[in-house]
Design brief:
alpha+beta; 20% strand; 5 strands; Ubiquitin-like (UB roll); 5-stranded mixed β-sheet
Length: 106
């Protein structure tokens, strides 16, 4: 199973195993990762699962879709590496993915 490393805004890291085919958000919720609220349940209808993708992983996670970009407009402290974790599907290629949660969600 791929491992995902979640860092909070203060730098505390938690490594968890993720099921291939799930999303980074679903994995966070199943593992009680703080900082990911996921109010819409993964429907890309809010920005409460916002994360920053580590620069080394940006190419592998891809760019946000136009719909995701629209939702990111509602996020807190958006940066070029901002993504909604509900839109990042876990694949074996993402083993070791590092994401950081913002100080707060929108």
């Amino acid at each position: 199973m791929p491992k995902i490393i979640y860092k909070d805004f203060s730098g505390t890291a938690r490594t968890v195993e993720a099921e291939t085919g799930s999303t980074v958000m679903e994995t966070a919720i199943r593992n009680n990762i703080p900082g990911i609220e996921a109010e819409c349940g993964g429907a890309c209808a809010c920005a409460t699962c916002h994360v920053y993708v580590d620069e080394a992983w940006r190419a592998k996670t891809g760019e946000p879709s136009p719909m995701e970009e629209d939702m990111l407009d509602f996020g807190y402290d958006i940066k070029p590496n901002s993504r909604l974790s509900c839109q990042i599907k876990v694949t074996p290629d993402l083993d070791g993915l590092v994401v950081t949660t913002p100080e707060k969600q929108a």
